[in-house]
């Protein structure tokens, strides 16, 4: 029966039938003879558990065909059939010996129950904590497990995998696997990027885009665990590496040094000479203040540049909290040295998206930044005071002028204070950056 909207368009239902007949496409990428990427490139995902995946994402799984056959990681559950088809196109499923799980999160383990069913002779290989985590998500009562300890090796024939636990990078059971014979690190979430591309190696893609997405990934997923990440990097640097094969995005083979150096920079919280002004407004009074802070910071940046012609320029960014996703705000905030948070007063407190920004900052635990609270109000205590309080919780030192408040439209004195505050934030950012060099 046709509904009020005219029913399902015929082309749509044809497409569904077509998909059913074919069970999704089959596509694999060779890394080495006998080692292939068999995961899924997801062009359409835009919200990955709240992460803004504007460029899509990939869930990388790796099939190793040696004397033994091992699958390293799987994909999200909805793409289990594609994974299964990809594996089956290279080897009979009965011949799969090991289903290796480096991390229990569902973007890597979602298709594991289907693979356990499809591969009757396979044993699930993981560390003890991972087994526990998998049991919390799935009915594993019929699964055969082989538990591997820290540093343990699993021989696959000519090649082997050594398991290294990387606790809290970014879950308790997280681990990576190193193949010494090929100098490949199967890194799971580490060194990943959310980006869908038909080319699967770093040198086949635009490097600045990859590094930006890797940075975004670090800022949004790994940042709270910088200390643990630095420890892992110490181990990674002792390995001979020809290829880093992460669980997301492209594989690193030509720019291994760049991505490891970048991780080191991000994990140690190195400052960039950067000021962010993140605000929300209803009727633009707070926006007028934000723009004045921006102008003050940019102007001071120009003076700093004149005095330091060879140094990098100060980067000042104006970010409307409801027009920029939290993901992109965090990506910029990771290395910002100073930040101003502004909001209009709504119902005696700050506006909800600005509150979300501050809540997100609290969890991500970036290195401290010099800060300013500001905002416009109508008749009472509200947003600037609430932000100022949060700065204390964040342990962000506020400049003396903070909080800057304007009753309704900011008058000349308020705007002047904002301009001055912008210059102070620029100075603070420059100094933090310079002290880090
Ligand atoms: C829905 C709504 C609720 C508000 N609640 C408060 C409040 O609780 N306390 C207050 O001082 N002002 C309140 N205001 C007034 C605004 O804070 C004031 O108009 C301010 O100038 C708005 O800044 P903006 O132009 O940046 O949006 C409220 C305004 C609106 C529209
Ligand atoms: Fe994860
Ligand atoms: Fe992941």
Number of domains: 2
Integer average pLDDT: 95
Strand content: 15-25%
CATH architecture of the largest domain: 4-Layer Sandwich
> How are the strands of the largest sheet arranged?
1-2-7-8-9-10-11
Q: Quick one: how many beta strands?
A: 23
Largest sheet: 7 strands, mixed
CATH topology of the largest domain: Metallo-beta-lactamase, Chain A
C-alpha termini separation: 70 Å
Indicate the percent of residues in helices: 25-40%
What is the overall silhouette? elongated
CATH H-level name of the largest domain... which superfamily? Ribonuclease Z/Hydroxyacylglutathione hydrolase-like
Number of helices: 13
Residue stretches low in confidence (pLDDT < 50, at least 5 long) are: 6-19
CATH class value of the largest domain: Alpha Beta
Computed Rg: 25 Å
